[in-house]
């Protein structure tokens, strides 16, 4: 039986696709604000306190607590959590805009915490770019000169930097506006200038700190699609902060969920929805249409001796919504097959329990 043809959304640059060398590797990272901050990560007793207890005992805020993760080349890595959970602090530590208190940050094999001021400046100019919620555009410079600003700082000549700036202005869909001033543009367009500016220097990693949260929902959706399109075109590694789950699911290959400075769970969207680590994550994902996120892997059941195994085949990573029509149309249960191996079967019942929202998380 030939597999059914369905459109399987391609995950981009997930860890399995890469050669295994992460772009960014973070180990046991801490950022503590306050007096004698460096004492906190060293003390088992202080480490075990809640944020509030720590504040009461020491006057310190542990904004990031013992966080470890890796970002693969080409991956879109999303950091999510409620306000105050430590997202901005974490991401700023990665480029040392905020000085970490303890832990290890390795970028392309280089220990970032050991970098001197000069090296850091170099990294920030050439390897990292940041896009913030507030666009930070220079009001008296035209779009093209805003975009070229970083290149100018690097010492690139006028003709070359203008050529490069025009290239990225075009890439973000702003051709025709290159001579406008920022205040002549809408919020969404200003954020496109921010994006173009971040891309101009051809960085290895783009960091986004809630870049679209000030935009109205329609423009916001446009900009999310824009990031996805750009990611397809330029394939950059991206670290993206948001507190909007739908944005996280739309953009992220993997999502790190933070709470009170700690990492609660790190995984793909279907892992968070299919197996939330605790009530905090469960609460985050409770309104997600499960059929849009879960794959057949999550809903299949083991084949029993009396099951009819003559049905059609689908892969385990097909999203339930994409498989619904095929499963309901088939006379027999659909076999979930990977590398020629039967993993399980999916029938109308499994599909309907998800589509009707009746399947509880693990
Ligand atoms: N410079 C600072 N001095 C002291 N405390 C700080 C400082 N910066 C951040 N914090 C504290 O660290 C914690 C984490 O803040 P952070 O800004 O990283 O959270 P966030 O997840 O980005 O929140 P939001 O969604 O509101 O942007 C908060 O309790 C905050 O008050
Ligand atoms: Mg923040």
Taking all Cα atoms into account, the compactness measure Rg is: 23 Å
Provide the number of structural domains.
2
If classified by CATH, what would the architecture of the largest domain be? Answer: 3-Layer(aba) Sandwich
CATH topology of the largest domain, by name, is: Rossmann fold
Account of the 3D structure:
- This protein is of the alpha/beta class and 362 residues long.
- It has two domains: 69-285, Rossmann fold (3-Layer(aba) Sandwich); 290-355, Alpha-Beta Complex (CBS domain Like), CATH 3.90.1280.
- The protein has 17 helices and 13 strands.
- The chain has helices spanning 39-42, 44-47, 51-58, 87-94, 117-126, 143-147, 149-153, 158-171, 187-200, 217-234, 245-251, 269-274, 279-285, 290-293, 296-299, 320-329, 348-355; strands at 24-33, 61-71, 76-81, 102-107, 110-111, 128-132, 205-209, 237-242, 254-259, 262-267, 313-314, 334-338, 341-346.
- The strands form three sheets. The chain has a six-stranded mixed beta sheet with strand order 6-7-8-3-9-10, with helices on both faces. Strands 2-1-4-5 form a four-stranded antiparallel beta sheet.
- It is globular and about 70 Å long.
- Mean pLDDT is 90; it is low at 5-17 and 358-362.
- The site of magnesium ion has 3 residues, from helix 4.
Protein traits:
binds magnesium ion; single chain; Rossmann fold; four-stranded antiparallel beta sheet; CBS domain Like; 362 residues
């Amino acid at each position: 039986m030939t597999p059914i043809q369905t459109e399987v959304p391609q995950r981009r640059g997930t860890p399995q696709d890469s050669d295994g060398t992460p772009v960014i590797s973070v180990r046991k990272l801490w950022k503590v604000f306050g007096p004698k901050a460096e004492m906190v990560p060293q003390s088992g007793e202080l480490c075990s306190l809640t944020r509030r207890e720590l504040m009461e005992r020491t006057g310190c805020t542990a904004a990031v607590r013992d966080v470890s993760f890796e970002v693969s080349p080409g991956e879109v890595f999303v950091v999510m959590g409620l306000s105050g959970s430590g997202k901005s602090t974490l991401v700023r530590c990665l480029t040392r805009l905020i000085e970490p208190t303890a832990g290890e940050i390795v970028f392309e094999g280089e220990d970032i915490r050991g970098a001197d001021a000069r090296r850091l400046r170099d990294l920030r100019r050439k390897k990292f770019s940041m896009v913030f919620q507030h666009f930070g555009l220079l009001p008296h410079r035209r779009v093209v000169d805003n975009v070229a600003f970083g290149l100018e700082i690097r010492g690139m000549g006028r003709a070359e930097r203008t050529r490069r700036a025009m290239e990225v202005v075009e890439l973000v869909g702003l051709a025709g506006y290159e001579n406008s001033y920022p205040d002549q543009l809408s919020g969404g367009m200003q954020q496109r200038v921010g994006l173009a500016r971040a891309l101009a220097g051809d960085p290895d990693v783009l960091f986004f700190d809630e870049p679209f949260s000030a935009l109205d929902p329609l423009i916001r959706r446009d900009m999310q699609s824009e990031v996805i399109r750009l990611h397809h075109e330029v394939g950059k590694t991206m670290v993206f902060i948001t507190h909007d789950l739908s944005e996280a699911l739309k953009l992220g290959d993997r999502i790190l969920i933070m709470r009170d400075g700690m990492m609660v769970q790190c995984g793909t969207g279907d892992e968070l929805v299919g197996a939330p680590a605790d009530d905090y994550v469960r609460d985050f994902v409770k309104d997600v249409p499960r059929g849009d996120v879960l794959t057949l892997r999550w809903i299949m059941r083991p084949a029993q001796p009396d099951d009819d195994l003559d049905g059609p085949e689908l892969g385990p990573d097909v999203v339930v919504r994409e498989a619904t029509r095929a499963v309901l149309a088939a006379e027999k249960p659909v076999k979930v097959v990977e590398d020629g191996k039967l993993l399980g079967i999916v029938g109308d019942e499994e599909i309907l329990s998800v589509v009707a929202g009746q399947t509880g998380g693990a």
